[in-house]
Amino acid sequence: YAGAASTSEYSSVKVSRNIEATQNTKELQDLAISLFREKYQGGAIRQIGISGNQLSDSSVRQLSLFESVEENQTNKKQESLQKAIDEIRETFDFLSIQKASSLSEGSRVIYRNKLIGGHAASQEREEKDVS
Q: Where is the DNA polymerase Y-family little finger domain (predicted)?
């Protein structure tokens, strides 16, 4: 779901896609970006939502007849890597492991992580608490 900044001027856009079951974060991110770019027509965006349904147990995996052994091994390695990253973040915090691009000039990952839900409302609350 991608909603425009002003619902009185613009309508919302919804798009969906059925995919094979995956836990691959990169694959899900790429799909979300692709769907957004497919429908985005310019202008301010107020809200973007992503949801999933027909979820399945991660211990069950449907193998594809068309997936090579190498692709299967690559997928297993990526799943193991993502699981390790998730465990590190659970044990420490979200910022304990990040991509190097998070440190580049203009990146807002670290700044936004300190906000409640990624919004400046938490700063306003902190300022009121200090007063």
A: 7-65
